[in-house]
Fold:
Amino acid sequence: MAVLASSLAFVNASLINVALPAMRADLDASPAQLQWMVNAFNLPVAALLLLGGTLGDHHGRRRLLVIGVALFFAGGFLSALLPQFATITAGRAIQGVGAALLLPNSLSLLNGAFAGEARGRAVGTWAAAGAIAGAVAPLAGGAIVDNLGWQLIFWVPLPLALAAIAVALMKVEEVVPDAGGHTDVKGAATATLGLGLIAYTLTSWSLDGVFDRAVILWGGAGLTILALFLWIEHRVGEKAMMPLGLFGARAVLALNLLTFLLYAALGGMLLLLPYLLIESAGYSPTRAGLAIMPFPLLIGLGSPLMGGLAERIGARLPLTIGPLVVAAGLLLGLRIEEGASYWTAVLPSLLTVSAGMAITVAPLTSTVMSAVENRFTGTASGLNNAVSRTGNLVAVALLGGILALSGAALFDGFHRALIVMSVTAAIAGGIASWGLAKRDAR
Structure:
């Protein structure tokens, strides 16, 4: 059930990435509109995952998971029924709210059912299943776009959502570790508004690179509201949706910095690569989906092994090496040029990035969960997922200028982005080495 529910988010992201060029052409969408169709999902996930984890702890993890999947279904149905820019954006925002509820609670239910090395393997299996779903989705989405039209991609996750609800209601017992806890509505509202303004600011700036008055004003407003969010969380204390006391632990701080940087780099690559292959390298959506398939498949094969291994050897080594391997893979992507062979340019980069993420994903997830007290596992899960989505949100918001390019200029923009993303991933590995040194030494 946890695997089925959480796979919805992976499928949703993979499907739209291969459909973006066709959607841009048919809807006559601007680069900013493409960014918002992607970030309409990322924004509520980033802002509300924190609340989703704490709501599950307070009101029932199964209940919140079912509500989240139902919202995911409703948003997908709206996008499928009325495939226009406004309704797709609204539908994906609703799906983002649903994902913010289902993701942390699916993992918390899984975490509570296992312990020790078995927990590491279970988390690895959870990550693997999501990766495999993410592998099938772009190929299926590409085939649908090529043969039936991009409008039909929004129907694909709906049967999975219904199945997840049925399994959860019939097979999963309710878990309420902190009944009657405080719901941090003010924190959720300020986080959503602050991140939304930051995303708007970065999206506007990325298109022309000019810090005009509007960019400064909106950016300043976003930062001010995020500062207000932190003040609210400080005042609420342990009952906050993001208890700031969690960051008193060096390992927790390092793990979340690692997550933000690594997933920002990865999110940028996964948005730009299929877009580049379709727009400027002459790939069909089906071929682009097939080209990307090795990435999630390798993660799916490697994650279960790394989950158990990290329980035995400690997390510091894999969480240091993994991001460095990702950085190397991103640099290999500089060989992707006009007319370059898939086998000698695209595939080596994808395989190397995949290997780095396979080393990283399961140890990162299980270490985040074990770094806090059991009563905070839902909150810690929501926090780490929110941080990864925030990294993705920021990356997408910064890439509008590149999405506006075409032909040889798009390759040049892609290469510049790869260099920045590689440096970002390498810094993430260094942070893991620093932050987990004392933890693994104990």
